Amino acid sequence: MKILLVVNSLYTGGAEFSTLSLYQWMIAKGHQVKLLLLKNASPSFNPADFGISDFSTLEKTSFFKKVRAISETVSQFQPDVVHSVLFDANMVVRASRITAKGFLHMESLVNEVYSDFRLSDPKVSKLKLNLYRIIDGVTSRFGTDFFHANGVAVANHYIAKVGVDPRKIKVIPRGRKPNPFVKNETSRNELRQSLGLDERIVLVNVARHEFQKAQDTLLEAIAKLKGNLKFKLLLVGREGNFTGKINNLIEKLGLKEVVTILGHRDDVTRILAAADIFVFPSRFEGLPGALIEAEAAALPVVCSDIPNNLEVVDPARNAIVFPVNNSELLSNALRELINNKKRREEMSGESAMIYHERFDIDSVHQQMYDMIEKLVVRS
């Protein structure tokens, strides 16, 4: 099978990582993959690390020149399917069907772009967002043959907000590899020592610095714990539009002694395996790969109660959940887990079980392959 993969960039995000992992698996199975990136990004994944040798980045140019480049690539490469990921890539591929007719186009839907919570972000224009939603809905009708959604909540979001036909969408979750550092006491002790964590209870949040990820709610919750408990919060993730807000809150709330910003890291799996509690206060999500990684690391979870998170965790087994933006209840949940080692250990075991039951990466990749193969045969 020949697949042309079109992605905005290889920014170090969950959607990008999941997509690269899938095609690494497919290349190993003997399939041919060509990757086109609309732009460069930093920090960025290296496609060669995922076994993808045929890749290129379109130079900084206009939307229409990118459309033409996609059309020409389709004509030359003759793929069985064009798979696009993220909004800009979806739009460019849809438009390219005007000149390069006849190819099969599948899109992956990975986030709730039109979430009501997003309108609370001061950087988001309601008018512009609604305009994008209308364009998305109209062009998807003629520009996309099939949609893959990484979660039920994401699928329902696009059905309700964009008008995607439920018959043209299939839900397959993200998968993650097992964490090789779980129960590795040597690795755990070395990492904790290198970060000066001593015997503290370590809380970790893995997310880029954006309004969506709600690190402000987390810091407000941490401020309510400060001085009462021996703990440390690690913020792992690349800088973004919320970095200034995060730094200002740490200064304003006097959290420098209990919060460490690690930024983008290449050793996230090792950090997770060395932590004690994973905390994830997001306002909206796709299917959160960070939560799956936390379960693979056998971590108890404290997270917001949005439907997307609840597709990954189970409040009856491995998570304490709280309403979005509620720093008081988040603080209470963290205090409870910090003080209760037995419960942390029980939830840890449940996280590991949920990961193995639902998010084994080979099973997920096989589901994705079966879906793509059926689409190609049917077309």
Concise description?
With 379 residues, this protein is of the alpha/beta class. Helix content is 44%, strand content 16%.
Q: What features would you describe in this structure?
A:
The protein is built from 14 helices and 13 strands. With 379 residues, it is of the alpha/beta class. The strands form 2 sheets. It has a 7-stranded parallel β-sheet, with helices on both faces. The protein has a 6-stranded parallel β-sheet with strand order 10-9-8-11-12-13, sandwiched between helices. Helix 7 links the parallel strand 8 and strand 9. It is globular and about 65 Å long.
Average pLDDT for all residues: 95
* % residues in beta strands: 15-25%
Please list the strands of the largest sheet in the order they lie side by side: 3-2-1-4-5-6-7
The beta-strand count equals: 13
Relative helix content: 40-55%
Number of helices: 14
Overall geometric form = globular
Instruction: Please give the alpha-carbon distance between the first and last residues.
Output: 13 Å
Quick one: biggest sheet? 7 strands, parallel
Low-confidence stretches: none
Task: Please render the helix and strand layout as text.
Elements: E1 2-7, H1 14-28, E2 32-37, E3 55-57, H2 63-77, E4 81-85, H3 87-96, E5 105-109, H4 126-143, E6 146-149, H5 152-161, E7 169-171, H6 185-194, E8 201-206, H7 215-225, E9 231-236, H8 243-252, E10 259-263, H9 268-274, E11 277-280, H10 289-296, E12 301-304, H11 307-310, E13 319-322, H12 327-339, H13 341-358, H14 361-378
Parallel strand pairs: 1-2, 1-4, 2-3, 4-5, 5-6, 6-7, 8-9, 8-11, 9-10, 11-12, 12-13
Helix pairs in contact: 2-3, 3-4, 6-9, 7-8, 7-12, 10-13
